Amino acid sequence: LHRTLLTAGIGESFLAEHIQHWESELPVSIKLAYLPNYGMVRLRLTGSGNDRNTLQNELTKQFEALKKLVAEWLVTDEDQTIPQVIGSMLKARKKTVGTAESCTGGYIAHLLTREAGASEHYNGTVVSYSNTAKKDLLQVQEEILQEQGAVSEQTVIGMVKGAIKALKTDYAIATSGIMGPDGGSALKPVGTVWIAAGDRKNIITQQFHFRYDRLRNIEMTASNALNLLRKFILAQETAI
């Protein structure tokens, strides 16, 4: 039997240290696997035995204990990917999302539309790779691009606003960064990324400094952008 959960915002080694005592007390019939991917860590409990009911009860007991230990970083207590989590959240709330992608070049759109039924909650993307596209398609102000640069908090905020208007969605995600291997500077080295997520009233942002190759940086940006939207939706509901 298996039970799986997904965490974000904590590395595998720190997570292992955090749950070390609990893991060391697991019965011999239950094993824990760490499955890290794109800045997230999937934890899978596997139970083996001859008595299904007894095993099921013990597995549920240990899984609930694990959930409490990792509650701060818990994304889902089901065996789902982050795009599946976002899709389920939007569908349950009857909300839609769009994306404004610069450095990810449409990769977030790819992740979301890979799931069946995405058309119910995903309206589309604007791949505004150039400053001209950011200005013309998303109405990001020229002054912001000139003074703050394309990779800045102000730019991704403007991209979210523009995407919500252009794509007629409830929420939007925006990404802008330097994926490498070239293009960085002393102030904004390769791997510098700004992401934003929000609705018509509120927008939250987060900066990252990735250190991987170009493709890995894109994948990490996309995963973290989707997670930022997840946290935004939950935070808005908590605030009401």
Please explain how this structure is put together.
This protein has a five-stranded mixed beta sheet with strand order 6-5-7-8-9, sandwiched between helices. It starts with a strand and ends with a helix. α4 packs parallel to α9. The relative contact order is 0.13. The chain has nine helices and nine strands. It is of the alpha+beta class.
List keywords for this structure.
240 residues, alpha+beta, five-stranded mixed sheet, 9 helices, 43% helix
**Side-by-side strand order of the widest sheet:** 6-5-7-8-9
How much helix, percentage-wise, in residues? 40-55%
Helix-strand topology string: EHHEEHEHEHEHHHEEEH
From the N-terminal CA to the C-terminal CA, the straight-line distance is 39 Å
By helix and strand content, what is the structural category?
A: alpha+beta
Largest sheet: 5 strands, mixed
Q: Tell me the overall shape.
A: elongated
Low-confidence runs? none
